[in-house]
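User: Here's a chain of 186 residues. Predict its fold as tokens.
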Amino acid sequence: MKPLQVRRSTLKMWLISLAGIPLIVIAIDVLFQRRLTGALSDMIFPDNDPQLFEARDLIWAWVMLAVGLGLIGFGLKELIVPRAVLRMDDSGLAIRLSGPTKPATLMPWSQIEDVRADRVEDEGDILPVLVVVLRQTFDVPRQPFGARWLDQRTLMVATSDWDRPVGEVAEMATAYAVELAREGRI
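Assistant: Prediction complete.
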């Protein structure tokens, strides 16, 4: 079968990049010009008794600048050089569970009992997840990045930022494993 790679959604990465722009604009305004914050201060305090900026405001401005630059950098990096969050090939299912900068964790097909799509509720939101049931946990992190253990062998992976629907990925994984089993390679 043809190997499959799933990446983060292009639209969501673009929106993450755009989210950093207002943070940078506000931070630069507070740190250097104070045109926007000065106009806002004049609207709030019309009698020319504005609140003065304190050291904590400058600290927050630097934090906003760093976060804004980080969001733009991460979003653009994922747009220009996207990394696969899931890879499926003859060796197994590889998912980034050790963190965004670490290599993907390979789960051989012989150690996977079931792969299915599901939905879970998280603080009122219904989120799509990929559920992977393993025969044993071997080298899978106990504190996975972007995933949670439901029990000793069941891993639930968040998929809301993937570029493919989780149902399609689960069906392809099942078909891949069945094909390998038919060929006697599992």
